[in-house]
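Hi W.,

Here's what went into the run:
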Amino acid sequence: MSIKRAALSIASPVLPERINDYLVQRLAKPLRVQLCEKLTDDFLELLLKAMDLAFILSHSYRDNVRGFRATYVFRTANESVAATALFGDGKMKVEKHGVIPYDVQVTFTDAHALWSFLLSENQDVLDSILANTVDVEGNLNYLYRFGFLARDLTRRIGVA
Amino acid sequence: MITTQDLSLHDVKLAPALTELREAYFRAMPEVCVERPLLITKFSAEAGLFEQARITVLDKGRLYRRVLENRTPVVWHKQAHTQTPSGPQGFSFDDRSPFAGSTTTKFKGVPLYPEFMALALWPELWTMSRRTSNPYFISEEEVRILNLDVFPRWMDRNIAELARARGTDEDRRRIQLLQKFVFFLASKPNCISHTIPDFSRAVREGLRAVIDDAQTRKERVAEQGKKDFYQAVVEVLEGIITYARNLANAAAAMAERESDPARGMELEEIARIYRRVPESPAKTFREGITTVWICWTAVHLENPNVGLSLGRLDQILYELYRDDVATQRLTVEDAVQLLGYFWLKIGDHVPTMPNAGEQLFGGTGSNQAITIGGVDAEGHDAVNDLTYAMLRATELMKLRDPNLNARYDPEISSDMYLRRLCEANINTGATPALHNDRAVIRALTASGHTLAQARDYGVIGCVEPGSNGRFYGHSAAILLNLPSALELALFNGRHRHLAADKVVSIETGDPTTFTSFAEFQEAFKKQALWVIDQAIALNELFGRIHQQFYPTPILSALFEGPLERGMDLIEGGASINGSGFAIIGLSDVADSLSAIETMVYREHRVDFASFLDALRNDYKGYEPLLSRLKNPALTPRFGNDDARADANAHWVIEMLHDAARRRVNYRGGNYHVGYWTMTNHAGFASFIGAMPNGRRMGENFASGLTPCSQVTPSLLPALQSVARLPGECITNGMAVNLKFTPEDGDPDRMLDNFVAAVKGYFNVDRDHGAGGMEIQFNVTSHRDFVEAVNDPARYDQLLVRVSGYTAYFKDLNPQMQKEIIDRTEYRLSTGNAVPYDPIPLPTGGGHVH
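Here's what came out:
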């Protein structure tokens, strides 16, 4: 655990929710820049980092995953980008590689495809599957939930 | 019996209160309703159903009873939301409907079924109120409820996931294929629905009599499974009766508080009626409608609102109507007002549609078909005064739902009746669809209905025929993209949308090596059968999951067969069972086969390798070939009464019918094939590149069984080609979409020609058992459609026929709007197509890269 993450974990329970929300907004700035200006291959990593921060800081965001256990693998077909998000005990842990078994695995062509999949204006997980830029294996319902979490995060950082 | 002097009921108008409610209806945007999912989730959890390995019919019966008893009894709605440039805004209105109760708690609700596909809306919960296409209003509190209290419980328990988790590796491979949307859609993860319940017994005898019947049968049988089924029927019917009583009590309480005496009396009358029905037999026309309505809301509580249809209401309610009129309790004007209010109630909900669904099904209602006219079980004319009252109500209300379908028997029905049906189409621009009793009854008897059952057919969903209240046919079980099979044959088992270098089906040979058209036909047939096999295997898997987790006691209690057999519908309890295919892209495939036959093998104008190169390049560099393909004088095209082109359509239809009818489904019924496309001829087309018939990438397929647009210059040959298709092989319905230009000069002459066109189409080769089966119309000019694209607010009530159902033009996605605009438009006075340039493709159309 990084020092910053550890410090936030200790501080957030005693801070008012609005301060925590403010911190989420500030600390997720790199993600906001990606969403508002230019998407790069770092998009997935920044999204997961911002989610991680939000889970640490925001009580109401944490409510979204209370009691939820799941493993998500995100990867490009050539494995140039791969990450695993593990949910459990109201927390999220990120691994920089794929793991097996997973509940759902998302294979996407590039950052734009993943953004479109999760966060475009007329967001729809199915739409990206139709466009054949994203391939999904596993339980689609888990993906729908992840889609909600991503959208909820962007609301909180003032993008949506 | 006809006593009406003026069949058009021209003098009957909508009452001001109904007009006001109708305006509110059009103003209101759909609103997500969380009551059903919340109650279902809560009571399922309390009963331990989430932990059970199987859910029995009795589990379901008890669950639905609790939900029915705890539903909010909404007597009159007061508020809704409307879309404004600054977002949704609330507005109030005066609802004085004589029919209390509603499908959801909202005036125009989106009912959610987490057991099926509601979770697909999860990512959109924060954005659906402002999405471009058909937005739904949802409050922040409702988002919170769905996100925290409802959806998480169903992540591993909805039908799609249960099938994936319980299926074999082969099943999961097929599910991956399904998720590509390229070959077919299997609709059981979303619903079965698509049927007509039997309301006649509920109206005639009342639900208490059905309960007594179930109790008696329960006592007589020894088998525990049957006892449980009968008890489940008792549970749900008691629940429905309680719901009606709760509505009565709510109305009575409102009446006591009401300061306006007139409104107070209306509420007291609602309370009085809802205390009587549906428990007891209906004694008046209004009570009859009330019984149907309350049962209808219960059916929707259990079964997703897709294609559930009301059947022959002009037959079921006729005696009550006749007696009321005879005793002067009712006038025809009163009846039309009641029907108008009832029509609004029927349309009080819209389907749950995630954004991508808008691409495939955009603008659809829940396709609640009502059937009028035709013949009775003995073959006598069944058209009556109520038939005309329903036509007038439809004409005045101009609503998307209900989807009105009129039966017409060329030998029995009167000319005046047909004339009135055509007139209603001119007045509404799009409804009713017309069905030829002779052809439909012949197809149904060929598929296993008895003659009496076939004569009592009603229309299900879009255009699918099935015997009223006794045919559980899931007519939309599989929506099959036929051009995908052609694609696989052209590219030896590969599909350009998925991966041009990867075999996704079976290798049927490189067509450049084929020496005859028959070889190519054989390759196409093998690929089509491969797609059919995948689709049927998945339908069977999903069917078994329905059997394990989704018995339907409410629908079973209102159906012929389950009570007699002591068996739920999902186990095969219906008198007649089946599963249906809807084939998308028939005309494009038939024309493509004709193009290959003519260009490559008969006239040797192009070799197959060059033809494939033309397809890969979307005909760029092959413009002379493209021009030749589009000219019906040079290349045979289906719809010109050209035997060479029509033969390929016949061959495909017979081949698909033969493949399907051999298969028996999990309920013991056969598979049936139909040709209606809803909006899938636009959605599926986006996955297919250029085709051999000259269709270019991004262009829509032809709808239903309609010949391809702009290649059939004359109406008569177009109708003859379609009418001569083998109807006995089209047992799951067909949609033929025609577009007529409204003509200002001589309306009577236009109507005469309209009637003549329909009669001619229905009577083609009648002596040989042929004759067009179904036909539907858009009577709106090209100019008005184009204006409606540019100024949707001005045309917000423009009703159109898509391919089966009716829709509001403004709700259709751009691709679908283009398809309707580009359809061949005929001038009735000449029978010739009206020339105009196709509008440009909308940006973003097509997914082929």
